[in-house]
Amino acid sequence: MDIVTYCSVELVLQGHRVARVGFPKMEKSRTAAFRQQLESLYSISIEVSRLHELPQVLDRALGCCLDLTQSAFGFIGLLNGSQEMDVAAIKGFEPSDPRFYEKFRLIPVRPSVFGVVITDRRSKISNDVLHDPDQVGQPPGHPPVRTFMGVPLQVGEKVIGMIGVANKLSGYTADEERLLSTFANQVAVAIENARLYEDQRRMIAELEDLHRDLSQAERDQVLREERERIAAELHDRIEQAIFSLGLKVNAIMEREPVTEPIASGLGEVKQLAVHTSEAVREAIFALSLPRPAASGLLAELRRLVREMGKSEELEADLVVSGTPLKLNPESEQTLYILAREALANVVRHAQARRVLVSLRYSDEHVDLVIQDDGAGASEQILNHYQESGTHFGMKRSRRQVEDLGGTFEVRNGEESGLAIRVQIPVRA
What we know:
2 domains; Heat Shock Protein 90; five-stranded mixed β-sheet
C-alpha cells in the first residue's frame, strides 16, 4: 500500500490569507508546474478582485477557469432561487440556434452531472459523462460533453452558484479540482462584491433622485409661498387702494355739483380705476397659474383644507367619492385655483363656521363643490356678477371652467351660506 504525504500552500490576497490548499507531495517537475499554477492563480485572483462590474467578473473568471484546466468550454451559473439557476456566463460554445440561450438559460436545480454540485454542495468530476450514473441528458443543440468538472461558488456557508468546465481531453484530476475550488472561493467573493457595488450604485442613484426631488419640492414650495405672498400683497393693499379710489370718485360725483369737463375727467378716472383693478386681478390670477402640484389635485386639496383648518377659526373638511383620476394639468390647475379662491373668500367675507369641500370622480366628469354655512350673497350679486366691475375672481373662474367644456354654478345654500358647484369633463 502506497503512503501519500501532503504539502500545503497558503494563498494570500492583499495581505490576508484567503485559503490553504493541500496537495500531495510530488516529484520536482510536477511541484514546479503546480507552483507556477498557484502563482498564476494568485495574480488572477488579484485581477478579478479588482473588477467591479458583474459581467466583467464573470467573463474574466470563466476565461481563467478554462485556461487553468485546459478545458474546451465552460459556464458560470448563479442561483436566482432555490430551484433554478441562471447560466450567467458561457465560453467556448457557439450554438447554431440563436434562441438557444433564451430557451435554456434558466436551468432547474436537480440531481444531474452538474446539478449535484448545487444539491450536494460539493465538487464533481466525471471523466466519462455518457456512462455517469448522474447523467440525465442534454438539451438539443448542446455540444456533447465527454468530461466534466464542477465546483460550487460559496460565500461562507451560502452556495450562490457554480463553475462548470468540460471536455478536457485527458480528463480532470483531483489536483485540478482543488485548484479550481480554491479559485471558485475567490470568484464567489468577487461576485458578491460586484453585486454589492451594483446595489450601492443603484442606492446612490436613487438617493440622488430623491435629493433632486426633495430639492425641487423645496424650491417649488418657496416659489409658491413667494407668489402667494405677492398675490396677497397685491390684493390686500394695491387692489383695495384702487377700489377705494373709485369709491371716492363716485362720492365726489354724487355729492358735489361739478361742471361737465370735471365730471368727464372724474368719469375717466373712475374708468381707469376699474381697468387698473381688473389688471391687478389679472396679475393676481397669473401669479396663481404655475401651481407646482406634482403630487396631484387630490393631495393639494387635502393640504389646502388641512392648512385652512389649522390657521383659521373655521372647521374645514374634504369629502372624496369615486375612484380618483389623473386629469390633464390645465383641469387640475383650474380646479385647484378655484378651490383656493373660494376658500379664501369664505375666510374673508362669509362669516362662516364651517366649510365643506366635496370632490366626486366619475368616468365622465369630476365635480367640485365648495359650500359654507355663512351669510351667503345677495341675489343682486348672484344674478349680475358677470357684468359687474368687481367680483373678478368668480368671473375668471367661470370663464376658465367653461373654456374646458365644464359648467360653473354659484348660488345660496338651501339653509344658509354659499355653494359653488363646478363640473369638468374628464377628457377636457
